[in-house]
Amino acid sequence: MSKQIFILQSFVFVSLLFFSCSKYTKGACQFYNPPSALFFLLKKDGQILPDTILQNVKLSYYVNGVKSYIPDLSEATDFYAGQGILATRDIGFLSIKTYYLEYPNNWNTDSLYVDYIAPSISTNCLYILDTVKFNTQLAPIDTTFKYEPVYVLNKQ
To answer: Mean pLDDT across the stretch 3-22?
Structure first.
């Protein structure tokens, strides 16, 4: 008799789980991959910025007037190490679209517009990078880099 009760309880539990999950998650992604890292080749007047500047560049944004920073902005590693490239993955998780590149040496701050399409069934539960603009202009991709897109941000 206890085996029958156990089977009945298991059936009820699985049924409740199925119906409650399907009610609240129908059409939504249950799992998704994190966004790919975003790579920037920073230049000033067409010249790659030196490491001494790259190591001190900060990426900020505002929410309700409060300034915050992207903590994982750093020089790229692996295939892109030592080539004047900064990388961040955290930027893709935020719903913020406008960021600010802050430089040492009292250089003017630049704006960076980054728009991701959030994971959904129509995007196959992937973050899709839609637009990258530097100071309101579409940022070109440097096609000499083969593994991931590298956006060129040329400071004037």
So the answer is: 39
